[in-house]
């Protein structure tokens, strides 16, 4: 991957910041560093950041809260760095909008591979403009604009989606009323999603249901077929974007 993607490293350890920033440069990345919430916000204002590597343990506002803050305003992918490796912490990262999760200690080359993978997925879905560009996808009064990742409820309220949630919803919308196994959903959502596996997909489906529950019968659009997978039941149409 030779494109000059801009990566922001958010960590309060200056040595780690310097090490990672220098390590990523030969792989074609432009790197920036921040040590806390305020410096992260300044970097986001100054630069067109393509991905954030976020440490969980930060002074003041922690990395989970900052990831949630980023997700409320932007689809920028976030990879969490943490010394805690149990499933509960992974779930917390997913619930707060992280796209992947790397535990310490880690090999820098593994982090490079994760960054490249997350960026490939993000760019693959931004390229839905070629297939759905200028159009919105409509279902049960909801409207999804694939070009800018915006999801609008029937009430008109904009519902924030993480990149993983957006990919999963697109997978359902492009295969409506078709039973999909968990393995198929992992593949359709472009591979490894935040520690991929059946439990990760189940968690993503649960989060997506919660967000769709903002309208009558919204959560019921995704049916669980026990032992087989999931079925998106709503009719899907494409219309011209405003």
UniProtKB/TrEMBL annotation:
Superkingdom of the organism of origin: Bacteria
Query: Where is this chain's protein located in or outside the cell?
Result: Cytoplasm
Q: Which residues carry this modification: 4-aspartylphosphate?
A: 55
CDD domains for this protein = trans_reg_C
Q: Where does this chain mainly localize?
A: cytoplasm
Residue ranges occupied by any OmpR/PhoB-type domain in the UniProt entry: 134-234
Q: Where is the Response regulatory domain?
A: 6-119
- List, alphabetically, the InterPro entries matched: CheY-like_superfamily (IPR011006), OmpR/PhoB-type_DNA-bd (IPR001867), Sig_transdc_resp-reg_C-effctor (IPR016032), Sig_transdc_resp-reg_receiver (IPR001789), WalR-like (IPR039420), WH-like_DNA-bd_sf (IPR036388)
DNA-binding region listed in the record:
134-234
Question: Which SMART domains does the record match to this protein?
Answer: REC, Trans_reg_C
Report the GO terms under cellular component: cytosol; protein-DNA complex
Give UniProt keywords alphabetically.
Cytoplasm, DNA-binding, Phosphoprotein, Transcription, Transcription regulation, Two-component regulatory system
GO molecular function annotation? phosphorelay response regulator activity; transcription cis-regulatory region binding
Q: One biological-process term from Gene Ontology?
A: regulation of DNA-templated transcription
This chain's protein is named DNA-binding response regulator
Lineage at the top is:
Bacteria, Pseudomonadati, Pseudomonadota, Betaproteobacteria, Burkholderiales
């Amino acid at each position: 991957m030779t494109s000059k993607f801009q990566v922001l490293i958010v960590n309060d350890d200056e040595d780690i910041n310097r090490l990672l920033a220098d390590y990523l440069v030969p792989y074609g990345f432009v790197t920036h560093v921040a040590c806390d919430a305020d410096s992260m916000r300044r970097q986001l204002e100054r630069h067109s950041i393509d991905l954030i590597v976020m440490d969980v343990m930060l002074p003041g506002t922690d990395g989970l809260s900052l990831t949630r803050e980023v997700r409320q305003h932007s689809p920028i992918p976030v990879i969490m760095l943490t010394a805690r490796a149990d499933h509960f912490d992974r779930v917390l990262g997913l619930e707060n909008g992280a796209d992947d999760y790397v535990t310490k200690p880690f090999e820098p080359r593994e982090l490079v591979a994760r960054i490249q993978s997350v960026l490939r997925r993000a760019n693959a879905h931004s390229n839905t403009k070629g297939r759905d560009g200028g159009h919105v996808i409509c279902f049960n009064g909801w409207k999804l604009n694939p070009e800018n990742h915006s999801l609008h409820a029937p009430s008109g309220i904009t519902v924030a989606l993480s990149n993983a949630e957006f990919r999963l919803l697109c997978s359902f919308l492009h295969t409506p009323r078709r039973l999909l196994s968990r393995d198929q959903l992992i593949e359709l959502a472009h591979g490894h999603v935040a520690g991929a596996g059946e439990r990760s997909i189940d968690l993503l489906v649960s989060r997506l249901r919660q967000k769709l529950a903002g309208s009558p019968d919204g959560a019921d659009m995704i049916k669980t077929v026990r032992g087989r997978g999931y079925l998106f039941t709503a009719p899907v149409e494409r219309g011209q974007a405003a």
